[in-house]
Structure formats: C-alpha cells, structure tokens
User: Fold this.
Amino acid sequence: MDKVTRNIAVFALLASALPAGAADPHLMCFGNEPSWGLEFSGRGSARLLFPDHRPAYFRGSETRLDALKESAWRGKAVGGKGGNLVAVLREAACSDGMSDVRHPVTARVSLPDGRFLAGCCRIPAAPNAAPTATIEGPAWNLVSLPGHDSSVPGGTQRPVTARFEGGRVSGFSGCNRFMGNYTVDRDKLVIGTLAGTMIACPEPGMALERAVHGALTGALRYAIDAGRLTLTPESGAPLVFQMAPEPRLEGVSWEVTGFNNGRQAVVSALSGTRLTLEFQQGAVQGHSGCNTFRATYKSDGDRLAVGPAAATRMACAGDGVMQQEREFLAALATATRWTVQDGMLDMHRADGERVLTANPVAK
Assistant:
C-alpha cells in the first residue's frame, strides 16, 4: 500500500470524542471560486473552512473502491443538524490552476446546503517527521512593507495579518479581510488573485490595503528565521512578518463592532454610543452604551459561559439607546465560544449564531 493510500485509508478510523482540529490533519483539500478548505483529522473528523465563516465540524467515515483508487467520505455536522457532507477523493494528479505544482488527490465535495465544490488535496508531512520551519499554520503579523513607514503596519488598531493553511491564504489587509489560494514548492510561494470584503475605510487604511494586495500576489521566495517570515518578490523589496502571539481573550480592551440584536441580525452600535468589553480573572466588565456593567464568566479553551450582567441604573436619552443596551447585554449572556482571528474577537452562541465582534483598543 503506497503513502497516498495509507493516508486516505485512515479516514475509516472510528470517530473519537476529540473535536476536529485536536489532531494534526492527515489530508488538506482546497479550492477557489469560492475559496474553501476541508481538513480531515484522521479520527473520523473533518473541518470545513470558508472566508468570514466560523469553521464547521463533521464526524463520519470513509468507504473505498481500490479498483478505482477512490474514496467517499460521508459525515454529519457535529450536533446532528442538517444533511450530510460527502467528499469523493481520487488518487490522481490535480492542478490548482495557479502554478505547475501537481497535488496527489482530486476532491469533489457536496455540502449539506446543496453546494458543490471541486479542488485538490495535499498530504501534510507526517507528525513524526523532523521539524522544519514552515510557513503554514501560524498567523503572521506584518511588520515591514515596501513603500510604507515600518511603523504603519504595526501601528494600526488591528495588525495586518496573513495565515497560510491547506492551500488557502486569509488575513486582514488594513481595512478588509482577504482570502485566496496559494501553492508552495520548496522555498517558492505562489499566491493567486486575492478577494475580500468590500468595506470602504478612511486613509491610510485603504492605501495600506492596496499595497498589501499588490505585494501579496504572484511568485515570492520565503524564508523563516527566529519567528520572522520574509517574502521576497522576483523584483523589489521584501515583506517581513512576525509570528503572531497566541490569541487571548483576557487582559485586552475590546470595542464591539457588531452584536446580535436578538432578531437574527448583527448590528453596529448606535452613533454616539460605545460598547466595550474586558475579561479579567473571572469577571467581564465594560460599557453597554449608557451604563457600565459587570458579569462573571468561566472559560475553558475556546468555550465560554457568561453570567447575568449587573449594570448601573442611569437612564440615557436618545432614540434606541436603552433598547440597544438591553439587547447587547442579552446577547453577551448567550456566548458559548470565542475566537480571535486577524486581531478581531468573534463570539458565537451554541447554535452557531454570531453574538458579537470586537476590535482591540489601546488602554
């Protein structure tokens, strides 16, 4: 049995109690139009990735036709809601359409909502392989960009970031989130055209974003040394990134950019009001638009439980201010999970609905 067959065959292992992502992925599939990623952990688990969406987790099993060198992986969403995700994986050379790199597996993926995806898969290095510096996995914060003062990328409220994982690059470029596909061949990195959200921001954010998009496209050489990633184009000055620290919830002052109003909508704060949060030693406190508040919380990894909030009793004038306060505090009490991606805090309820988003602010 060859290496590809051995790695794909591990999908038949029984599903474990570990969540997807707790084990190193054994196969990483990806594609574009739209940009997507699908990671198999080898424990009967899979993680589906889309830009600006919370990862979706599935548990299932694989069946295989050796004569055709094909496998079909079928899984249910964790929590049991919705239909099946079905991935048909074939051992055949696959082109990502961006470079001359050929990947060993083709993928066709049917999603529970009826969408159909096509792409390639690659097999990561074995977990017991000798450790090497790799561009993939960690988040990188931009610290130097050609044509811009070196203090600009690090001085923005949210850092300019990039994460390379499973053939998909994503990050924050100064105003909007971006995403695209890439390939790696030894020390050569090829990045395709980037897409992203389309928020208009004041300068210098837009100028910085245009420069980032221009610099992070095409063929670059990469080198990693002491936690620093240098990307050098075929002509021109290099970009320099620093490995981002581990995300943290506590000890950061957060300003809310959107919250769930309880009517299946995430809305921004009313003009002239601020919604803030700070988590520290089992207590979360902040400003809820009119009053200050305080509540207890417990966290375990990315899991979170927030108790009822006690707030001061000032009544504020202004259309909708007091209603906003009630809706914001009610939303906060429903949070069960949190993550920090590209510097932004993103909190969700148990059913997957977003609770709030927030950016760090200087104290």
